[in-house]
Amino acid sequence: MKIRLAVITILLSGLFSCGGSKKVQQEQFRPKPEWIKSRPSSQAYYYGIGASRKTLDANQYMQSARQNALADMAGEISVSISSNSVLHAFESNLNFREDFTSTIRTQAQQDLEGYEMVDSWEDAENYWVFYKLSKAQHQEIKEKRRANAITQSLNFYSNALNSRNQGDIRSSIVQLIKALNPIKPYFSEPLPANYKGKQIYLGSEILNELTHTLNQIKIVPVNKSIMVKLGNEILPSQLQFMVKGSSTNPAHGIPLLASYTERPIRNNKQRTNANGVAGFSVDIVRSKSSIETFSATLDMDDFLAEANADPLIRKLVKPFNLPNASININIRTINFAVVVKETVLGKAQIPPMLKESFERKSSEAGFKVTPNQQNADYIATIIAVANPRTETGQYKNVQVEGSIKVQTNQGDVIYLKALDGFNGRHFNYEQAANEAFREVIRKFENSYFREIQEAIAKR
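Predicted structure:
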């Protein structure tokens, strides 16, 4: 009993000791300062106040509070929009304005210099920090940075105009986009600059010249309209576009982006050659419509990538109206005549299974099947013979052999495939023959018909 009382006494003493220690620790914190209770303001300073909840890692929560204070200070630095600024021209685009404001605040936080810590305070749960920055000092640093940015931008701007005068449209557009990057933090400001003795508002002037350059570009289709057969390939020589600049001379190295109304195409990006021409192709025409459209427009993404433009500048440039041109593709349907001879165990199979399969696949591809060979572009002849083979126990074995031949109406053979090795097993010969024919049909629909289409496309 005495031992138990002693243990209880020790535990109680420890609890009171901890409680007393915590009370002493609380009493060590000085009273909450006025700058936390009421945010100060000044004509001479920007202020930043940040807080963070305490964790076991003191460095982590102190650093978090400092970052919050700097973000708070950057938020105090207001952004006003000048009527001669880049941002004013896009003020109606709220998404761009929000993105710009967010970017500028982030940049302003990164660019803060010369700030000093005024005070810090903590209690048991939170840590606070208080910074200040001289407005005069900040303005001086900002003006130096803005002057350097204007100088860099003017170099790109000057190079762009020189390139355009020399007929290098591609380089001119890239340089104009590059000219926007150094002045990005100042899109809300007028940015007056002197260029060859003339006063300009640099940001707005760059956008005006970019618009002017894009408006001078003309994309002209070499063929306004072409005629193709369904199932054929369209060659690059048929889908050519010429790009001309301000002097109507061919513009080389211009990136074009192509689109085809039937479906997306591979290799839809090309640059113009020395003659200002870019050609595209369609591997095979499958459309069921009588007309499709093939278009080409300026590939602004290519220019932006070459200029290494960041997301904000991409968003600024993307809405520009871009030159484009189209070619009408008139599609002539291909007529097929189909002759199928199927023999099952010495008897003609009526109706032929492969004929129905050929007609269905032809319809899916947009071909027309005609009973008159004289009106057909191509004649398909299918011969399939099902003969019995050695029995296996109770099973009957049947093998189908034959050929598929496709030729033009002039007799030129464009496709020839031997049918061999198609087997069927069942308890009776008729069902075994059906199994073998189903194997032929699967192969025809999954492989042979596509090969026929490719053979037609190569003509």
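Summary: The chain has a mean pLDDT of 87.
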